[in-house]
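HOLO CASE FILE
Compound: adenosine-2'-5'-diphosphate
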Amino acid sequence: MNVEMPKALRGMTVLTVSSVHHWTDRTFSFTTDRPASFRFRSGEFVMIGLVVDDKPLLRAYSIASPSWDEQLEFYSIKVEDGPLTSRLQHLAIGDEVVMRPKPVGTLVLDALTPAKRLFLFSTGTGIAPFVSLIRDPETYEKFDEVILSQTCRDVAELDYGKAIVAQIESDEMLSEVVDGKLRTITTTTREESPRKGRMTDWIRDGRLAEATGAPLSPETDRVMICGSMAMLQDHKALCEAAGMTEGSNSEPGDFVIEKAFVD
Ligand code: A2P
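Model generated. Tokens follow.
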């Protein structure tokens, strides 16, 4: 099949869309088949997209499904005039997307040293790598407590994360593995909800420490951060202020960061 592909598409894998769910007017998720030969670590991202005028139009997408899953899942923003997402949001079952099958990224368990608590801080679609990790048994082998945090503008934008947590709770095998170790702390910034404000403010003023029992500490905690550039910088500064050092695949550390953005 590769032989018939236009030159620009050589080395790419064609995936067939198996489901699409629109969560809000700004966000949607979709699943595709997973080629048997395609391996990745939970939390990694790949380049995916569409073929436009015989050329691939690709963006970096976190794989939202865990590494054991038979399907691939992606969670996307819809940007009205975004080159890719303005098209991608019209995906339907049976449509094809293309993927460069080279998963990479630092939001992986291998990039963190051992500790007791794992904090996963996200805003908006930055939750995608974390809904992969919270469905991976290895996360619970390595940490006693996993705290998933997502801050969104509106309450409805929290629905995707809520649905994944509900899926974990209703899955007999996974809920046994998780065994009460997973906690979710969601906040909204522009709509009233039980928890209001940016998580960065929650860390600064002690609300997160109160909710989780102790402030962030390099002795007990590891952190993964995924969101906009400004969000990454603010969270990174808070980790560094707590005495944490940034990790990578080659040199595991206390916290890791990755930008979540497509247009
Ligand atoms: P805010 O409403 O105060 O800007 P977006 O939808 O624009 O990507 O934002 C997603 C969420 O991330 C919003 O709730 C937004 O809050 C929050 N946010 C934006 N910038 C930062 C930041 N620097 N640190 C923490 N949260 C942020």
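CASE NOTES: Residues 76 and 253 are 29 Å apart (CA to CA). DSSP finds eight helices and eleven strands in the chain.
CLOSED: yes
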